[in-house]
């Protein structure tokens, strides 16, 4: 096999990331040397991987997860352009793992040609090293206001001659209209590369869909390559669905007599909230994303996660009264945890001339440390120990501890202190620390004690890495069992089939089959 495929979507969160991972896992299990690729990602959920120069670099967490599905080490080339929104109007630009500046909607146009050139060259480089490169699009190719200069959806497919499949989420409703409309809004040259569709998250009897599947094929001239059922164990590294009010994961029943309730504050510029997924993997631990002060009052453990805009998100906490809710929670002796930007918010003061330009602002004052922002971002994988257990993690931050001598939460392998503990309040700059099983167990045991949950017993055998590996295998199984893998293989190996018809907007539709679409 030698080739590639673009997985596009009708919308954000349609299932592009997980379908790409599933195809990667299926190919890997068949012995294919496969790599993931997303030319440009917009996300504050990133992972630190080894860069082209041997130093740490950032890519989207979804591409790191897809690399794991391929059975390979993550590489900055798998996501050459990463945009990290710092406000509604600006984003930090990470190019091949390294921050190179900040863009707005206006000056992005000036940088786009450089970014596109890097993305196309990187893709061709990967193509020479791997049997197949499975590409994930961004948003939808039908965002026609963005088609000029696009290099992540049909712009990439056109440049590389890639066949594309379009995935739609039936759970949202209107999936057939979304599939037809996505195709119809594309120009003829782009349509010539769209080879078929996949429907995601179907619940119920697939036979009910057959009239709709037949009709969408009749009106577009393109097959539906399969219908993926909704599966509760597909939870990997969510990016677009971290809405407040969401409960992470599907925790099993507690081993003891009580649950541990965890409230994660859903900051406006939340970053790497996937840290909380490791907590949600534990039986008896309910992890809930919230923006409501009342939810914090009911929680046993409150978590302030990472942020791409520490100072402005801290101001948002104060505007919503969440700062007082956090202080009351801590004053009650219940556990409070800050991770990266959340750790910085718990400090006495923050000096930020880099990210926000606000200068010195007061933190929440719950940890005896001072923070100052450095121009150069810390990007590194870290190793050490905490609570008597080995810990590995990664760091992505401008803020540094510059004052205070607190009790550390962790220590690096060389003995340097990291993070802080003051009674029931803890903080760390390390992401991924709670993916370390023994450290997570000891932290949750201590948190349950501080919260007064004497009946909570941490499970002795939860293995986060094994759970993630099983979830990737679930994705591979879904692809093998529910998609036309022979058709996918042909597309990857042979490219777009010839003779695909053009479907103009408003094209007449075929008559409905008896019984309607069933959707």
TrEMBL record:
Q: Which family does it belong to?
A: Belongs to the CobB/CobQ family. CobQ subfamily.
Q: According to its UniProt record, which residues of this chain constitute the active site?
A: 340 (nucleophile), 431
Pathway stated in the Swiss-Prot or TrEMBL entry: Cofactor biosynthesis; adenosylcobalamin biosynthesis
Q: What is this protein called?
A: Cobyric acid synthase
What sequence ranges are listed for the domain CobB/CobQ-like glutamine amidotransferase?
Answer: 261-439
GO biological process per UniProt: cobalamin biosynthetic process
What is the documented function of this protein?
A: Catalyzes amidations at positions B, D, E, and G on adenosylcobyrinic A,C-diamide. NH(2) groups are provided by glutamine, and one molecule of ATP is hydrogenolyzed for each amidation.
Looking up SUPFAM superfamilies in the UniProt record yields:
Class I glutamine amidotransferase-like, P-loop containing nucleoside triphosphate hydrolases
Where's the CobQ/CobB/MinD/ParA nucleotide binding domain? 6-235
* PANTHER family from the UniProt entry: COBYRIC ACID SYNTHASE, DETHIOBIOTIN SYNTHETASE
| UniProt keyword terms in alphabetical order | Cobalamin biosynthesis, Glutamine amidotransferase
GO terms, molecular function: ABC-type vitamin B12 transporter activity; catalytic activity
């Amino acid at each position: 096999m030698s080739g590639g495929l673009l997985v596009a979507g009708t919308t954000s969160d349609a299932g592009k990331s997980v379908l790409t991972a599933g195809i990667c896992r299926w190919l890997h299990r068949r012995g294919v040397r496969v790599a993931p690729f997303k030319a440009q990602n917009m996300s504050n959920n990133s992972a630190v991987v080894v860069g082209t120069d041997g130093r740490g670099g950032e890519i989207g967490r979804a591409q790191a997860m897809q690399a794991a599905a391929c059975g390979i080490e993550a590489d900055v080339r798998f996501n050459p352009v990463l945009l990290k929104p710092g406000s509604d109007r600006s984003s930090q630009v990470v190019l091949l793992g390294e921050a190179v500046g900040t863009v707005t909607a206006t000056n992005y146009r000036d940088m786009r040609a450089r970014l596109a050139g890097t993305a196309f060259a990187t893709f061709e480089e990967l193509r020479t090293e791997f049997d197949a490169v499975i590409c994930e699009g961004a948003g939808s190719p039908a965002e026609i206001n963005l088609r000029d200069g696009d290099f992540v959806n049909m712009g990439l497919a056109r440049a590389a001659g890639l066949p594309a499949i379009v995935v739609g989420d039936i759970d949202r409703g209107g999936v057939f209209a979304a599939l037809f409309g996505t195709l119809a809004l594309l120009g003829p040259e782009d349509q010539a590369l769209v080879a078929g569709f996949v429907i995601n998250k179907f619940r119920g009897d697939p036979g009910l869909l057959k009239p709709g599947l037949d009709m969408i094929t009749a009106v577009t001239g393109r097959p539906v390559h399969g219908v993926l059922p909704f599966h509760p164990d597909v939870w990997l590294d969510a990016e677009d669905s971290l809405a407040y009010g969401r409960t992470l994961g599907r925790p099993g029943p507690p081993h003891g007599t009580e649950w541990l309730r965890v409230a994660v504050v859903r900051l406006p510029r939340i970053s790497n909230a996937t840290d909380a997924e490791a907590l949600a993997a534990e039986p008896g631990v309910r992890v809930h994303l919230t923006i409501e002060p009342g939810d914090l009052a009911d929680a046993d453990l409150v978590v302030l996660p990472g942020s791409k805009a520490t100072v402005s998100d801290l101001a948002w906490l104060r505007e919503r009264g969440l700062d007082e809710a956090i202080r009351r929670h801590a004053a009650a002796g219940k556990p409070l945890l800050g991770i990266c930007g959340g750790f910085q918010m718990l400090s006495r003061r923050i000096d930020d001339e880099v990210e926000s330009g606000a200068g010195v602002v007061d933190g929440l004052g719950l940890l005896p440390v001072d923070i100052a922002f450095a121009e150069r971002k810390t990007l590194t994988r870290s190793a050490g120990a905490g609570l008597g257990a080995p810990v590995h993690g990664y760091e992505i931050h401008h803020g540094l501890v510059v004052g205070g001598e607190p009790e550390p939460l962790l220590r690096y392998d060389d003995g340097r202190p990291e993070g802080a503990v003051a009674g029931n309040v803890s903080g760390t700059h390390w992401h991924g620390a709670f993916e370390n099983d023994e450290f997570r167990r000891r932290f949750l045991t201590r948190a349950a004690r501080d919260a007064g949950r004497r009946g909570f017993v941490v499970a002795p055998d939860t293995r986060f890495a094994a759970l993630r590996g099983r979830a990737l295998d679930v994705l591979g199984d879904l692809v093998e069992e529910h998609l036309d893998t022979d058709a996918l293989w042909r597309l990857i190996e042979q490219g777009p089939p010839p003779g695909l018809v053009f479907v103009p907007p408003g094209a007449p539709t075929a008559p409905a089959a008896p019984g309607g679409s069933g959707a």
